[in-house]
């Protein structure tokens, strides 16, 4: 099963689609969670997920906006989508009846 | 990115692999992240990468099984060869010695060959066993060198005599970084030669355990050269 950070990364990458690469994923995660994401955590997690077959990465052409540096593009594989779905389902199931979930939906416990 | 910090970031990023360096530096330029923060980010990634490398047994073996004992042993051989050479050159020392000249010459030849072959093999294995942690292996082999250099007390010999092994060892490391595979026939020949020279009575009175530090790298080269298409020394 995925870890929290892995799930966030896969979800951010999937949301960005063809525009998913290191800096964009990092910004998306920081904006969504309100927490800082270090480059070290990002790239080591990308590697780990690629080893597991949940992501595919490749180097793009160099662009002048980045000082002529290439981007590491990321695409979520079908296995990655399934792993993220499984994680989401598990979190949803385990959260049923939790006070914070109940309060948010306005139902009485 | 402030101009004063950017060169530091670039230097730190050199510890990363080429593609990753490109991606990380590009990300930092694109986001315009502050100098110190960018530097810490890059260093953080470098540390994480190093930790991942050290989860394998290869870097540990390269440091504790090769760099530390190997450099000590090879320095011993270097000094021994220098002493024999000195005896040969200054024949007055040989007068009254139980060893005739031809025996000293044979000793010099055997130990010289063992020093060259052993140093090359140690360098090759050190370079191929764990390329990404090679700098740690090199630094580890410097500690015994400095220790012996400081404590060297042989008035008739130059301190440089300690480092006769360096050239073949550096040559071995360079070969390891260039070659992906070594010819199996050559590897077997080298391993047999080094093993034979190590157990020769002229090189060791009884087979001293530490001498095997010179033997196992040669057989490791044989093992990694065996499979067709297999790359030697991936970590």
β-sheet strand percentage of chain B? under 5%
Question: Would you state the CATH class of chain A?
Answer: Mainly Alpha
Annotation, overall tally of beta strands of chain B = 0
Rounded to the nearest angstrom, the distance between the terminal CA atoms of chain A is: 29 Å
Q: Label the structural class of chain A.
A: mainly alpha
Structural class of chain B: mainly alpha
The H-level CATH homologous superfamily of chain A, spelled out, is Winged helix-like DNA-binding domain superfamily/Winged helix DNA-binding domain
**CA distance, first residue to last residue of chain B:** 34 Å
CATH topology of chain A: the name is Arc Repressor Mutant, subunit A
Largest protein interface, residues of each chain? A-B, 21 and 20 residues
Shape by Cα distribution of chain B: elongated
Shape of chain A: elongated
- Rg of chain A is 16 Å
Summed up, the domain count of chain B is 2
Number of domains of chain A: 1
> Hey, roughly how much beta strand do the residues of chain A contain?
5-15%
Question: How many beta-strand elements of chain A?
Answer: 2
Radius of gyration of chain B: 22 Å
Assembly state: heterodimer
Describe the protein:
The complex is a heterodimer of chains A (109) and B (235). Chain A is mainly α and 109 residues long. Chain A has helices at 4-16, 22-33, 39-51, 78-95, 99-105, and strands at residues 55-59, 72-76. The two termini of chain A are 29 Å apart. With 235 residues, chain B is mainly alpha-helical. In chain B, helix 1 (6-13) runs parallel beside helix 3 (35-53) and helix 9 (184-199) packs antiparallel against helix 10 (212-226). The interface between A and B is medium-sized, with 21 and 20 residues.
SSE topology:
The complex is a heterodimer of chains A (109) and B (235).
Chain A: H1 4-16, H2 22-33, H3 39-51, E1 55-59, E2 72-76, H4 78-95, H5 99-105
Antiparallel strand pairs in A: 1-2
Helix pairs in contact in A: 1-2, 1-4
Chain B: H1 6-13, H2 18-31, H3 35-53, H4 57-89, H5 91-94, H6 101-129, H7 134-151, H8 166-178, H9 184-199, H10 212-226
């Amino acid at each position: 099963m995925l870890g929290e950070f892995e799930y966030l990364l896969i979800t951010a990458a999937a949301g960005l689609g063809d525009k998913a690469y290191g800096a964009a994923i990092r910004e998306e995660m920081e904006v969504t969670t309100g927490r800082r994401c270090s480059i070290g955590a990002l790239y080591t997690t990308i590697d780990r997920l690629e080893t597991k077959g949940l992501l595919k990465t490749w180097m793009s052409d160099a662009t002048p906006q980045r000082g002529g540096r290439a981007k590491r593009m990321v695409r979520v594989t079908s296995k990655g989508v399934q792993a993220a779905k499984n994680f989401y389902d598990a979190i949803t199931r385990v959260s049923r009846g939790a006070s914070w979930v109940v309060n948010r939906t306005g139902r009485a416990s | 990115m402030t101009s004063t910090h950017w060169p530091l970031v670039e230097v730190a990023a050199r510890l990363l692999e080429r593609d990753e360096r490109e991606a990380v530096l590009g990300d930092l330029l694109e986001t315009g992240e502050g100098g110190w923060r960018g530097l810490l980010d890059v260093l953080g990634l470098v540390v994480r990468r190093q930790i991942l490398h050290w989860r394998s047994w290869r870097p540990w073996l390269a440091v504790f099984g090769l760099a530390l004992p190997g450099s000590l042993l090879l320095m011993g051989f270097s000094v021994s060869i220098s002493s024999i050479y000195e005896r040969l050159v200054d024949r007055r020392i040989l007068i009254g010695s139980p060893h005739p000249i031809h025996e000293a010459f044979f000793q010099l030849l055997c130990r010289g060959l063992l020093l060259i072959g052993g140093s090359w093999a140690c360098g090759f294995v050190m370079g191929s066993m764990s390329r990404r942690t090679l700098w740690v292996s090199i630094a580890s082999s410097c500690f015994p060198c400095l220790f012996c250099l400081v404590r060297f007390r042989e008035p008739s010999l130059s301190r440089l005599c300690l480092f006769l092994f360096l050239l073949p060892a550096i040559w071995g490391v360079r070969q390891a970084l260039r070659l992906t595979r070594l010819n199996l026939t050559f590897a077997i020949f080298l391993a047999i030669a080094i093993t034979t020279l190590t157990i020769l009575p002229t090189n060791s009175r009884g087979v001293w355990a530490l001498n095997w530090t010179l033997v196992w790298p040669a057989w490791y080269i044989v093992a990694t050269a065996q499979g067709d298409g297999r790359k030697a020394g991936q970590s």
